[in-house]
Amino acid sequence: TGTGPLLDATGIRVAYGDLVAVWEVSLRLHAGSITALVGRNGAGKTTLINGLCGLLPVKAGTVLLDGRDVTALPAWSRVALGLTVVQEGKRVFRELTVRDNLVLGLRGGGVKRADREDELARLYERFPILGECRRQRAADLSGGQQQMLAIATALATKPRVLLVDEPSSGLAPVFVDLVFEALSALRDEGLAILLVEQLVDEVLGGIAEEVIVLERGRVALRDRAANLAVEDVAASIYSSL
Ligand code: ATP
User: Fold this and answer.
1) Cα–Cα distance measured from residue 168 to residue 60, given in angstroms and rounded to the nearest whole number
2) Parallel/antiparallel/unpaired status of strands 161-165 and 7-16
3) Are 179 and 147 in contact (CB under 8 A)?
4) Which pLDDT belongs to residue 239?
5) DSSP 89
6) Nearest residue to 94 via CA among 29, 135, 140
7) Which of 12, 14, 16 to mutate to test the pocket of ligand 1 (most atoms within 8 A of CB)?
8) CA of 39 to the centre of ligand 1 (A)
9) Ligand 1 center to residue 215 CA distance, Å?
10) What pLDDT sits at residue 76?
11) How confident is the model at residue 2, as a pLDDT?
12) Which atom of ligand 1 lies at the shortest distance from residue 19's CA?
């Protein structure tokens, strides 16, 4: 705890059998900061995120969460320690109500039963859309509402580090704005956020402080967003085509 990075990953390698998809990638995430992870399809962004959060085992490297080595821990115990992922594709429990999805998040984060209603009220306040449909099945929500629910469920676990995989994918522009507003607010509250995002304009136009371009499983470019031009990032992403 202190001024060091909240998440400090060094030399992360992730493979599917013999196919190495992420080669010795290192990155640090700081409190109150959004780092964007960009790169073309197949560059290894999702694989890296899954290695960081424990959904995939790493073949090499170390993941430190606030100084503590969590590399060998399963995903659920990383969640309990404050490292939570919002997976690609608006993953929610479709047959459960909005409220019950959120309760699962609260339980995953170790929130006490006695605090449950207060925490739910806070989540509904932050996401009024979810408050309005708290009794509906997640399956009956729109795609944008489901993505808000996925983010809210992750928040319910009380993370300090949030990994978010392509939250804007397939959403109407109004929901893309809502998602980015929500992530900016969380950053302002001190979360360290890693955001996989295809919308390079949005990433450089304000939401991210730092940008990492991944190419064939390696870091091709890394800089503060303010130092990068959209054309440079786009060129770096598409040069490998
Ligand atoms: P996208 O934007 O399409 O999600 P990405 O940058 O997230 O792309 P990954 O999905 O991490 O890229 O894929 C990285 C590499 O790993 C690709 O070559 C992909 O084909 C391969 N890969 C991904 N998932 C698997 C899997 N389950 N089994 C085998 N190979 C996989």
Assistant:
1) 31
2) unpaired
3) yes
4) 64
5) T
6) 140
7) 16
8) 12
9) 12
10) 94
11) 59
12) 30
Q: How far is the CA of 41 from the centre of ligand 1 (A)?
A: 8
The predicted complex's ipTM stands at 0.95
pLDDT at position 227: 84
**Residues 40 and 185 sit within 8 Å (Cβ to Cβ):** no
Extract the tokens encoding 129: 């859309």
Among 46, 52, 169, 219, name the best residue to mutate to test ligand 1's pocket (greatest count of ligand atoms within 8 A of Cβ).
46
174 CA from centroid of ligand 1 (Å): 29
Q: What's the pLDDT at 66?
A: 95
Q: Give the per-residue pLDDT at 187.
A: 94
Residue ranges of the chain whose pLDDT lies below 70 = 1-2, 239-241
Confidence at residue 226, expressed as pLDDT on a 0 to 100 scale: 82
Ligand 1 contacts CB of residue 50 (under 6 A): no
Spatial neighbors of 215 by CB under 8 A, at least 6 apart, are 39, 40, 43, 236, 237, 239, 240
User: How far, CA to CA in Å, does 103 sit from each of 82, 121, 188, 228, 232?
Assistant: 16, 12, 25, 41, 43
